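Reminder: ligand-aware prediction takes two inputs, not one.
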Amino acid sequence: KLELSSTKSPISTDEVTKHNSENDCWIVINGQVYDLTSFMSIHPGGSDIIKLNAGKDVSAIFNPLHAPNAIERFLPPECYLGPLQGTMPKELICDPYTPGESKEDIARKLKLRNKLPPLESIINLYDFEMIASKILSNQAWAYYSSGSDDEISYRENHSAYNRIFFKPKVLVDVSQVDLKTEMLGSIVDVPFYATATALCKLGNPEGGEMDIARGCGQGDTKVVQMISTLASCSVDEVVNAAPSKDQIQWYQVYVNSDRNITKEMIKHVEELGVKALFVTVDAPYMGTREKDLKIKFSNSTQGAKIMKTRMDAVVNNDKEEEETADVTAGASRTLSKFIDPSLTWNDIRELKKWTKLPVVIKGVQRSEDVIKAAELGVEGVVLSNHGGRQLDYSRPPIEVLAETVPILKERNLEGKLELFIDGGVRRGTDVIKALCLGAKGVGLGRPFLYSNSCYGKDGVERAIDILKKEIEMSMKLLGVTSIKELTPELLDTSSLKIRSANLPHDILFDNLYQNPTYIKFLDG
Ligand SMILES: Cc1cc2c(cc1C)[n+](S(=O)(=O)[O-])c1c(=O)[nH]c(=O)nc-1n2C[C@H](O)[C@H](O)[C@H](O)COP(=O)(O)O
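Here is what comes back for the chain with N-sulfo-flavin mononucleotide:
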């Protein structure tokens, strides 16, 4: 394990600048000097980003994309040379990596960020998305908002909820409504949670996933947070950021080809007190998120060449070539180096032996696999298509839920495992529909990314309060007072399968989000 130490003699800036080539590459990160000559070829983010900045201070590029302990965890100890003496000359200090945008863009967005609408003027989750689309860097917006290929699943995830209607009961005393429920053995305030998303520092460089932990725990309503393997903060930072020790956090696992890394991580997060493991299985490779890809090539001619090499490599199934070729092909592709594409059901059986925690399989997309999971004895599954970021045209999870629960009943498997669902959930009514169809809990990804990116922890808390109030109101108007009363007979799902996939027009935005007149950026 790499240990930073002041016992190493300080290194002058002149000395660093001499090692500025591909074959002799020193860089500075947060006042420490590293020799990455041999490491760059195995850097998950590709070697180009290192080669291009040999001999420079790359802290501003490194910090938004890596957990602080990434160096200790992944860099071989021999790469560490010692502390930097003084600071690098201005021209050798890299700016934050902002592919696809000019200095004017950055200045304009910074101005807007300093004139955000008052938080209390935000009245639904789409408002956060609209503001985020205006102030996030191109890279952050592309990474967060993109779905794969034509983004059909991305949009259908939400559109499917629009095809379900309620059959409300009247003349029920709804003066008191209780949203409490139980998830994986824990009593929770609300039936929804902040699901695992990566690289939160792209949108919120200071707070990252720590601000989601703070927002989930600082208000009256406590919400479960799932922490991603690919978080931009270390899991220790995120757990320690939780305002109270009894705040419930889950850990999302991408199983690494080196099983010991995963085993170690599971042991560590168990010691940290997370309450469950969610093993993501819908991303043996990261989907092709074209908005994300385009950003990488927007300011470099080399992109087309790399893209061609990478595509050839994928077509010829040439892993080696692909590894070296897609060095800057979007944040998603580079992140996928950590994930083992050979994972099978046997690995889940094995992984269960490594932990006492409940194990949930995240990214199940057909009832046959739910049955397999039940028979294998995991505690739950998340019906999910990764927010439409993986296989395009995979069905909206709410459709899979509607199909699966009757089959589990038939086979006497109902209650054998807990069903979670995520993808396209933007309204309290979406949450209620999922619960009526048998979900135990409902995950939201982008709404918490956007609220966190725009307003940090207070934005996350605001999003929670908005969603909670929508659920309370809709339950009262539905004529129910507790979660357990939410059953399928309250729904009309007769049009659920009549899909509305329009190529690739952004149906979600156009149909559901009327540009709000009340949102005003403060002038001055
Ligand atoms: C939006 C988003 C989602 C990611 C996500 C990153 C972003 C920006 N990442 S990703 O880097 O691999 O793609 C993760 C992740 O780390 N692990 C994971 O299990 N799911 C990941 N997901 C999927 C997420 O957990 C939910 O399945 C999805 O966000 C639900 O859809 P909505 O965003 O519409 O709520």
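Residues 43 and 50 are 9 Å apart (CA to CA). The chain has a mean pLDDT of 89. We will return to this case in the review session.
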